[in-house]
Specification:
Elements: E1 7-11, E2 14-17, E3 22-24, E4 27-32, E5 35-41, E6 52-55, E7 59-63, E8 65-70, H1 77-82, E9 85-90, H2 95-104, E10 114-117, E11 121-123, E12 140-142, H3 146-159, E13 164-168, H4 178-190, E14 195-199, H5 201-211, E15 215-216, H6 228-236, E16 240-241, H7 250-265, H8 287-295, H9 300-306, H10 309-315, E17 331-335, E18 348-353, E19 356-357
Parallel strand pairs: 1-6, 2-7, 8-9, 9-10, 11-12, 13-14, 14-15, 15-16
Antiparallel strand pairs: 1-4, 2-3, 4-5, 7-17, 17-18, 18-19
């Protein structure tokens, strides 16, 4: 019997069940062949005789975290998985490196998270990140005008892109003009790909909204204030925000906290992401990101949802991001109660991906 074929029963913990994160005390969660095969209170779930049992009294079971913004090439994937993140989305890395890694990560026994990837970031000639010190050669793909948009998008789609990332960062170099940006978004949407953006400043944010960009890969970069009216427009137009607050400091952090609070208050969808690889973020469930999301006004339940059910829905991941029968057995055991104390999310005891323990 292989590890993926074995049956594991986790007993005694409080499980946060379903997309609504309903607490079930003294729960039994059974994993078989990579899926959750039974889940409920100890009074309702029988433990198979052959199951390997894990006693977890006093702890909490949550779905594996989904980090929607990483650059996983900076860390061993094993470190990310062991610290509570079972799925990541890489938002800019050379295609010849990241796409083969993403393909390998689909194997249940891969010692790292499932990796979704954008490949290179689409940008203007000489624009960010083509001159960024952190970015290996090939991290940016230059698009000179609207006539090149479909070719560039088709290229990354064929290579394996799950999303298209664009850069609108004037302090770091030239940016895509309106016509080119609209052509990229149109080409992506025609290929069933959403577009996420590294966006600096209100002028570029409005340009992104006008073009139909689906997501901010960071809460707005810079120190500009998003007004309640603009936050409401973002929410009404179904723009998603991945905050990456842990990489901010000073005035940029203050601005990002306020902007995120207004966006969330307007009903905007927030999806957890750290920009792992950038200074400030750490592999796995990042304690600083959690703390700062709370400072922006998100409740503990909203923070967990942003990294589980909401993230899975946003990324089109069926049967992930939730503890329920039939879902992928991506499970994290936490010391403490994260609904009462979100700092507990940083106290990861044990992680399973597809029912296989992270080593």
């Amino acid at each position: 019997m292989t590890m993926s074929d074995s049956t594991t029963a986790i007993t005694g913990a409080t499980a946060l069940v379903g997309p609504e994160l309903r607490p079930v005390e003294n729960a039994v969660l059974i994993m078989t062949e990579g899926r959750i095969s039974a889940l409920g209170s100890s009074d309702d779930v029988a433990i198979p005789a052959e199951a390997q049992q894990v006693e977890a009294r006093g702890m909490t079971l949550i779905p594996g975290f989904i980090d929607a913004h990483v650059h996983i090439g900076f860390f061993p994937p094993r470190r990310v998985l062991r610290a509570g993140v079972t799925t990541v989305r890489d938002l800019a890395w050379p295609p010849e490196i990241i796409f083969p890694m993403a393909e390998r990560s689909k194997a249940p026994g891969f010692q790292g998270p499932l990796i979704l990837a954008a490949g290179p970031m689409l940008t203007a000639p000489g624009g960010y990140p083509t001159r960024a010190g952190w970015a290996p050669s090939g991290t940016g793909l230059e698009v000179s005008g609207p006539e090149e948009a479909a070719v560039a998008v088709g290229r990354v789609k064929e290579q394996g892109a799950e999303v298209v990332k664009i850069a609108l960062n004037p302090p770091a170099g030239p940016v895509l003009d309106e016509d080119t940006l609209k052509a990229i978004v149109s080409a992506a949407h025609e290929r069933a790909l959403e577009v996420t953006g590294h966006v600096y400043g209100l002028a570029e944010l409005r340009k992104a909204l006008d073009a139909g960009v689906d997501e901010l890969a960071h809460m707005l970069m810079g120190t500009d204030r998003i007004s309640p009216d603009l936050a409401a427009r973002m929410a009404a137009e179904h723009m998603t925000v991945v905050p990456t607050l842990a990489i901010r400091s000073g005035g940029e952090l203050k601005a990002a906290l306020g902007n995120l609070g207004r966006f969330a208050a307007a009903g905007g969808r927030v999806v957890y992401g750290t920009d792992l690889g950038n200074a400030g973020a750490s592999p796995g469930i990042d304690r600083r990101e959690i703390r700062l999301m709370g400072r922006a006004g998100l409740s503990p339940a909203q923070i967990i949802e942003s990294a589980t059910a909401a993230a899975a829905a946003h990324l089109g991941l069926k049967d992930r991001g939730v503890l329920e029968v039939g879902a992928h057995a991506d499970v994290v055991l936490i010391r403490g109660d994260p609904l009462a104390d979100p700092k507990a999310l940083g106290r990861v005891k044990k992680v399973w991906r597809a029912g296989i323990p992270a080593l």
